[in-house]
Design a protein that fits this description.
The complex is a heterodimer of chains A (about 350) and B (about 130). Chain A has about 350 residues and is α+β, with helices and mostly antiparallel strands. Chain A has 13 helices and eight strands. In chain A, α3 (about 70-85) runs antiparallel to α4 (about 90-120). The chains are: A alpha+beta (about 350), B alpha+beta (about 130). At the A-B interface, α2, α5 and α6 of A face α1 of B.
Chain lengths: ~350, ~130
């Protein structure tokens, strides 16, 4: 047995978008074990719930993550609505789906860019972010915010989208689809990329399932779990296809996300076709008394908001379990046995969002 | 075998104009809904303190005695909560971001609203 050495990876590393620290135990160039540690950007969001009124906490819940912000806000609102038995207007539910899917597009395009950067394809990185800009422009036109939309509120949504704007949006989706098609062709069919990603960071279906992988990390290993299938919000009235891939390597996880871009645009089209007219919010009176586990599908996987109220304006407990946290044990499994040079690509392949994880 | 899939896209972008803008020399593109920074019409503010209570970032401080409305632009998260809840609609959302600063400071606005005098009570007929 050769001598083992420990190489620290992160919290500051050129490919890491956010700080996570991994101690890589190496034998020569091969990783034999990984010791992760998080805790660099803890902000105490869950404690803050005791200090802010539950209506104002919506804005704070949304700021848990800078990428899937809308889904955090909407999930929190849906949780409170369940506790208070509030019937949300149907139009608001559809609008939440539309913005959630735009969030997913924005997150996946951002990730595809960062991932291209991790294997040294700068041009593709710029291309992905150029396409993402169009999604952000749409967000800003309809909600007023590019990244933090602030469009969700307890009892509905804060803004409506006019029918003319919705029709225009569907027309624009065709050219966006075309642009994304060009982009994903490079990811899925370029041999240099395939050569770099195939058989790197493999995790089997059983391991992914037992270690609690969620989202595209699980779907890339053939575990067909997608919370949208459970039919929260307006998803029960839409046809949600679950994209899976069986190989469980970095290429599969990339392929799942690349294909999910098109399922998101398809869901937006479906939502626009089915969206009814009517109000977008209801008046909320009283305060939440009770507890609820609200689950939703984020771009990275299953998100859980646990909320508990005692009948006052201040909640007593909030717990947010984000998908990256559950994807860390599978990541460790993927890293065991890989080459040191593959570590950045594998770490990026689970789409780590550390701000979310530490809250 | 497919190599150089990116070449077509890359060559096209070489011939196109840049998609980026020279911010801040050139103003960022904004829409009518864009949330940039909060402004106040000091002649209409009744110092009720709703914006201070509803601010999730605690960026706004109202002083009834000194008749001032203060905002810490670096604390403000531009959520539009104050604009939505203001009972007299004296707060507005400007579409451009607040200008960059080199030190933390609090912006103080003196409220010029004067409560109109109550009309004199007419003597009730006996």
């Amino acid at each position: 047995m050769s001598k083992q050495i420990i190489v620290p990876f992160g919290p500051q590393h050129p490919i890491l978008p956010e700080p996570i620290h991994l101690d890589l135990v190496l034998e020569d160039e091969r990783v034999v074990d990984v010791i992760p540690s998080i805790g660099y950007i803890h902000r105490g969001f869950e404690k803050l719930v005791e200090k802010r009124e539950f209506t104002e906490y919506t804005y704070i819940a949304e700021r848990t993550c800078g990428i899937c912000s809308f889904i955090h806000g909407a999930t929190y609102c849906q949780g409170i609505e369940q506790i208070m038995n509030i019937e949300v207007p149907e139009r608001a539910e559809y609008l939440r789906v539309i913005w959630s899917e735009f969030s997913r597009l924005h997150s996946h395009l951002l990730w595809l860019g960062c991932f291209a950067d991790s294997f040294g394809f700068e041009n593709l990185f710029m291309g992905a972010w150029k396409t993402r800009e169009r999604v952000l422009d749409f967000m800003e036109e309809t909600t007023g915010g590019r990244v933090i939309q602030g469009a969700s509120k307890i009892g509905g949504v804060r803004r409506d989208i006019s029918s003319g704007k919705l029709d225009q949006m569907v027309k624009d989706l065709d050219s966006l689809d075309h642009e994304m098609k060009e982009l994903t062709t490079v990811f899925l069919h370029d041999d240099s990329i395939r050569h770099r990603l195939r058989n790197v960071g493999i995790i089997s279906r059983e391991d992914a399932y037992h270690l609690g992988a969620v989202g595209p990390t699980a779907r890339g290993s053939g575990v067909a779990i997608d919370l949208r299938k459970s039919g929260y919000g307006a998803y029960d009235r839409l046809n949600v296809p679950v994209v899976t891939d069986s190989c469980g390597d970095c290429y599969s996880r990339c392929a799942v996300r690349a294909k999910e871009l098109f399922t998101s645009t398809d869901l937006i089209r479906q939502a626009v076709t089915k969206i009814p007219d009517g109000p977008v919010d209801v008046k909320v009176t009283g305060a939440p008394d009770g507890e609820y586990f609200m689950r939703a599908e984020q771009p990275r996987g299953e998100l859980v908001h646990y909320l508990k109220g005692n009948g006052t304006k201040f909640l007593v407990r909030s717990r947010i379990r984000t998908p990256t946290l559950t994807n860390i044990p599978p990541l460790i499994k993927m890293l065991q046995g890989c080459e040191l040079a593959d570590v950045p690509v594998i770490v990026l392949s689970i789409d780590p969002c550390i701000s979310c994880t530490e809250r | 075998m497919a190599f150089f899939e990116m070449v077509k896209t890359a060559l096209r972008t070489v011939l196109q104009k840049p998609v980026t803008i020279l911010y801040p020399a050139q103003a960022a593109k904004k829409t009518p809904l864009s949330r940039g920074h909060v402004t106040i019409d000091e002649s209409r503010c009744i110092s009720c303190g709703t914006c201070q209570r509803k601010c999730p970032a605690q960026a706004i401080v109202i002083s009834k005695e000194a008749k001032t409305w203060q905002i810490d632009r670096l604390r403000c998260v531009v959520c539009n909560s104050c604009v939505d809840t203001c009972p007299v609609k004296c707060l507005f959302m400007d579409t451009q971001y607040s200008s960059p600063v080199t030190a933390r400071s609090v912006e103080i606005v003196v409220i010029t609203y004067v409560k109109p005098a109550k009309p004199e009570k007419k003597d009730e007929p006996t």
